[in-house]
Amino acid sequence: MASAAHVYKDVMASRTYEYQSDFARRYFGQGKAEAILKVLATRGVEVPTDVRERVLACKDLALLDTWLTRAVTATSVSEILRDD
Q1: Is 39 exposed, middle or buried (0-12, 13-18, 19+ CB in 10 A)?
Q2: What is the pLDDT along the chain (84 residues), one digit of tens a residue?
Q3: Which of 25, 24, 10 is nearest to 64 (CA)?
Q4: Burial class (CB within 10 angstroms; exposed 0-12, middle 13-18, buried 19+) of 17
Q5: Of 14, 46, 51, 60, which is most buried, counting CB atoms within 10 Å of its CB?
Q6: Is the pTM of this model over 0.70?
Q7: What pLDDT, on a 0 to 100 scale, did the predictor assign at position 38?
Q8: Cβ neighbours around 8 below 10 Å, total
Q9: How confident is the model at residue 30, as a pLDDT?
Q10: Whole-number pLDDT of residue 32
Q11: Residue 55, burial from CB neighbour count under 10 angstroms (0-12, 13-18, 19+)
Q12: Alpha carbon of 39 to those of 34, 52, 56: distances in Å?
């Protein structure tokens, strides 16, 4: 059975559509930010207020995708926000 992280990466890799309007990008990004926080809460990973604010303020959809992918397996917020 494939891991959740592997399945998520495959699903996200198949999506190539880029939202054209600022409105769509903003609300799509907001949904991704909220998804990151939901995944972390569900997994019991504590999210400090400053990190929560950083995630919710992020407008970079590619970075939000990276963080969401990492949130699936991360055990701390430092694993999600690390620079590669």
Answers
A1: buried
A2: 566 666 556 555 555 555 556 655 565 568 899 999 999 999 999 999 999 999 999 988 899 999 999 999 999 999 999 885
A3: 25
A4: exposed
A5: 51
A6: no
A7: 95
A8: 18
A9: 81
A10: 92
A11: buried
A12: 9, 13, 14
Q: 30: closest CA among 51, 60, 4?
A: 60
The amino acid at 54 = R
Which runs of consecutive H residues, i.e. helices, occur in 19-60? 22-43, 49-57
Domain spans, the chain: 4-9+22-81
pLDDT of res. 22 = 63
Cβ atoms within 10 Å, residue 56: 13
Query: Which residue's structure tokens are 């495959």?
Result: 10
Calculate the alpha carbon distances from 73 to 15, 16, 23 in Å: 21, 23, 30
Please tell me whether residue 37 adopts helix, strand or coil conformation. helix
- Burial classification of residue 61, based on how many CB atoms lie within 10 Å of its CB (0-12 exposed, 13-18 middle, 19 or more buried): middle
